[in-house]
Predict the 3D structure of the following.
Amino acid sequence: MGIELRGSKLIAIILIASGLDFLLLGYDQGLFGGILAGEGFTDMLGNPSPTLTGFVTAVYDIGCAVGAVGAFIWGEKIGRKRSIILANIIVIAGAAIQTASFSYGQMVASRIIAGFGVGLSTVAVPILQSETLPSHNRGALLVVQSALIIIGVAIASWLCFATLFANTSLQWRFPIACQMLFSSLVLCCCPFLCETPRWLAKRGETEKARHVISRLLDKPEDDVEVQGQLNEILAAIAIEGQDGEASWSDSFSNKTKTRNLQRVLLGMAPYMMNQWSGVNALCSDYLAYILEKYLGFSTQMSLILASVAFTQYAVFSWPPYFYIDKIGRRTTIMGSSIGCSICMAVIAGCLGSSSSYTTSAVAVAFMFLFLDCFTLGILPVSWSYSAEIQPLRVRNKSTAVGVFSHWMSNFVVVMITPIALNSIGGYYFWIWAVVCASFVPLTYIFGVETSGRTLEQIDEVFFESPRACMGLDKKNTRVIIASKEDEENRYRAFGKLDLEKMAEVEQVETVST
């Protein structure tokens, strides 16, 4: 057995491994937007048409969607930790083939392979975090992963700019090869990771689950707090177990006590909001392209502006750490959606009017502001909410459905953007302004608050007051601001309850004897 980290050190390695995985995700999101600016790369691809350019960029998302399907089928069997290991091995294989590509077909196939690995990891990593991080500041800790997505985008943008002027295939091969570095670092962290106690308990490995809980809390296995957390998990499993073993179709049914279909839809919503906000239509994949083609900036200036925008984007991804657990997921995403809608409307107005220095400057300013609004709300919630809201019995399958919807939406947006810009120009962004505005009433009516609640407390919300419009019940939208001490006291109460029951049983057995 290797070194067993405990307490804050174990939490830290979980965050580091997850962060590196999402750093890779962000890097991949920003990679093609940078290397497409190089003539050597487009020559290698055979100078494809806008449609084929959109396809080779977007086909990565098809691979990610297929990876999510793989997680749906096999993820629950192999567990969270082994899913992450397998995913990053696949990413390294796909990135190696991409780096060695000499044709359009090779690049397409290898991007699908790498995407498969990323799709698998984007199911496993959020579940690993949601099932191991403490509930009182789980949202703040999950912000770290979404912030690292944006840092990855910024790194890709600056690196592509740095290699833009290379006269050889180094211009694009080196940035692509860097994908292997991030996945290799994740694999180096994996021996120190733990499997989640909820996955172990669900498989009947109760003592292993107890051991992992003791490591996470850095307390002895017989500590009352360890017993309390295990009791809460086992109680939730017992309730879910009344419905029997989960089938694939159970993820899409409301007949069970846990209301799986409703929670799948709630989990899909932030993933869909992430993509249907228009962020990848405007920024991650096409910002430099739009600055050059529609606002008249040179290739070099477009890449510099895009890189600066992504750097600011990364800086503004950190403030949610300080408020997401205090004001809640619902308020965070509604405020973010309002800001994104206003920015998209201004951008559409500027790009749709006659070009001038003033309209170009205003458009660039609101592109920067859009990124800020997006990363201050929609982004951090989208990568945490689904794994929080799903019941344990179908958590892996249901999260995979949400991730699949994310990547398919990403594919559609990235694929249609060059075509739409060619057809209707800047008016295209009016669509995103309206869609972003629609997120506010949808979240208000249907959204359930998860801040400060353990995963088992979230289950109780659906057990006690099931209804379609959950957001209209104030009990379901209340933000619980809990401290570490509150969480410890809750688990101690569960642990003492169990000890009292054991004492009663022993007393009855003594009397009967």
About this structure: Residues 288 and 306 are 6 Å apart (CA to CA). Residues 195-242+486-513 form one domain. The chain has two domains: 9-193+254-477, 195-242+486-513.
